[in-house]
């Protein structure tokens, strides 16, 4: 049996000194989250290079009674990947396990290690003429393991589903150090419980994902991107219905952007929409391998103008122009962070309730937290709005949370559509999820991690 004082020497002898960071500037990027809301103090950061090393680290930490915080690209928005301030938790970074092991363009699979950057995996699929349809603004830093552990959403969910729908196989290290090999490439596999689902979206609290097999799709040959201004979210929803009628399942993104989001992007990223100013904007992307997509999109937009659903708009003439339109959407989060303090709400409500939700949440905030500004944007096609509230020192974040989440609950919505609970929403989850659901979650956690050694205090209170 080891004790806490043996921890560092044992980890160092396993991994070598270069793979164990204990102090100095090198430690900082692993210790604080992307939003800089949750500064932690790791006992150390370990950077294994194989699943066997991950398993040994877990055993050593277990013997020393140390908790482990798995970390990928550390782009999470809920403080799930950083340690607490006790100085006792070990951050286990997967960033040295980044290989792409195979891309199969016929079987439509990619196998990658957990630390592989999402963009690198997208590009590898693209080079083989295939599509890995997980796409989010943090894709240049987020990792395959992090995306799986968070069950990330992003801009393509309305067509391809959340990350969960793309995971075929997983390799996981359990909290007792057992390696579970499940890197199967099967489309159909009903042999027993589908245990991998426990780990997808569990935010590093049930196991450490070390490698995965993801499903690819044929890459559509044509795509069309358009930015439109609309009078209000209700008009945006009518536009979605029209787009579904005219473009069917070719719609791959349908994003809502408020005037406030556009103003923040203009102010902090220097990017400006190439259409007349308006209160609300919709960014639509459709993709297909069949000819005639652009004509269909033009017909759809013509009808939208005729029916008064869209006020102004532009269709990208080239890939470069499409990227410029997407840059407006992709810079919202970063621009919001530059503006100052914000209280984030990553909520979903039934799709048709989005316009009413936006009105009622706005009214509730005006009454209960005067002086706040709403920066609303997000994945309208999924009923997922990032309802972020810009605040100053007068405003209390929990009070703002309560106002917004009470409205979400009244609409039968979720307090986290895609970013997860992390440490940011632990109290809110316990408040808004019914006791039997919370009990079930604790039963699962106890079964897999009875000593609460894996990411304690995240998702469920410690
Ligand atoms: P991390 O932040 O390192 O970790 C996230 C969680 O997973 C933590 O709880 C961590 O402990 C756990 N974890 C990480 N790796 C592993 C592993 N190998 N095994 C077990 N647990 C692990 N998210 C969306 O869903 N949709 C968006 O559109 C979106 N846009 C974003 C835009 C910006 C600008 C930013 C900064 C973030 C955005 N995010 C979005 C949030 C974030 O990028 C995603 O949640 C992403 O999946 C996190 O990946 P990561 O590798 O950075 O994970
Ligand atoms: C996005 O969709 O850009 C992020 O998930 C949102 C956020 O910053 O709240
Ligand atoms: Zn999002």
From TrEMBL:
Q: Which Gene3D superfamilies match?
A: 3.30.465.10, 3.30.70.2190, 3.30.70.2740, Uridine Diphospho-n-acetylenolpyruvylglucosamine Reductase, domain 2 (3.30.43.10), Vanillyl-alcohol Oxidase, Chain A, domain 4 (1.10.45.10)
> Is Flavoprotein there in the keyword field?
yes
Which Gene Ontology terms describe the biological processes this protein takes part in? Answer: respiratory electron transport chain
PROSITE patterns reported for this sequence: FAD_PCMH (PS51387)
The record's GO molecular-function terms, alphabetically, read: catalytic activity; FAD binding
Q: Report whether Flavoprotein shows up as a keyword of the record.
A: yes
Q: Which cofactor does it need?
A: FAD
Q: Which domain of life is it from?
A: Bacteria
Signal peptide, first to last residue: none
Q: Which residues form the FAD-binding PCMH-type domain?
A: 38-219
Keywords recorded for this protein, A-Z: FAD, Flavoprotein
Record-stated family: Belongs to the FAD-binding oxidoreductase/transferase type 4 family.
Q: What is this protein called?
A: FAD/FMN-dependent dehydrogenase
Species of the source? Microvirga lotononidis
